[in-house]
Amino acid sequence: MSDRSGAPxxxxxxxxxxxxxxxxxxxxxxxxxxxxxLTILLPVRVAALVPPPQAVVWLSxxxxxxxxxxxxxxxxxxxxxxxxxxxxxxxxLGLALSCLLLLFVPLAHSLQGLIxxxxxxxxxxxxxxxxxxxxxxxxxxxxxxxxxxxxxAFAPGLGALAGVLITIPGIASADGRLAVVALTVAAAxxxxxxxxxxxxxxxxxxxxxxxxxxGGTRDLKAALRMWAARLLVQVAEAALFSFLxxxxxSIDPSVQDHLTARVFSLVLVLSAPAALLAGxxxxxxxxxxxxxxxxxxxxxxxxxxxxxxxxxNAGIASYAVFGFSTSIFxxxxxxxxxxxxxxxxxxxxxxxxxxxxxxxxSLVMPWFTLALVPWFGxxxxxLLFAALALVAALLLAGLRTEVVxxxxxxx
Length: 411
Known about the structure:
CATH architecture of the largest domain: Up-down Bundle
Number of strands: 0
Low-confidence stretches: 1-12, 200-218, 402-411
Oligomer: single chain
Distance between the termini: 15 Å
Number of helices: 12
Mean pLDDT: 83
Helix content: over 70%
């Protein structure tokens, strides 16, 4: 069954809340797939195979290869879902492949074997995520993208919660946890794939006869602004995700790792409902980019506070300001990006290019940080990130509210 079939709706057609909730749950399935696996289950598996010095090398190599596979896979399968004009079939295949490959992880006993499985798993996961993201662009009108972004904000928290639950003693064995993750992901994604077609007929795809060059330059510029702004914010977010613990330890060597985990979790929990409220406000006021600008203006205050912090409490409070604002930004940006895509016939491919803003920082930031911190310390790094966030705010402030008109599918 085609995902783009269905009776045409009005340009202001709204999707039922039921579909938005199913879609947000499916998107959370992606977080449930990779957060527990990459942050807990895979490191545990590596630690069981090799001693700590080698484990660091193994994890670095696996992460690097996995990020490349994720980048290529998101673009490839997004484009294939464009060409074949179907989303749910590709997402279903990706779901099946990624869940199956999780069960093969215990069979790998070498670095090469783990890299192969993780690369294939990343390809399968992005075979699911790329069409799923484009499906949201097809189905959700601009008037509801703020609400959608708010609902998507719960995904990282659910991924982190899944990681907590599967590590409860007695829940499952080390290998059994992989099966629990696979079943949970399937339970989150399948309802949208099975029921979503009936709940949400597509209303947004531009008819093929519509000249693509009309407004195309403006649309492309808007997409480039959104891409660059997210990349600038993600550079800072990726660095803090990796080095927050080391920075806190530089302030107070007695800081324990569980404090960092609690700070991350608290920020994710509090930012999700805030993003939902901000998204609803943006929809009602028809100011989709205003919350994004506000977040990129607030984030530098947190970074400057971190640069000046002399105590752990001051550092945590400053990070909370940064983490809270960037978590809201990333969730709402994911949804509002859908309105800036310049070609409705290549939404999957274009979202794959946007996904590079998620993977590129992870590839370059460890080396970038290690090059700067010895010379300027963490304070210099945070001040640089603050400047990048302000540049992102300037890029977003120039966006017009109406970027891409909503068009109906032909009957």
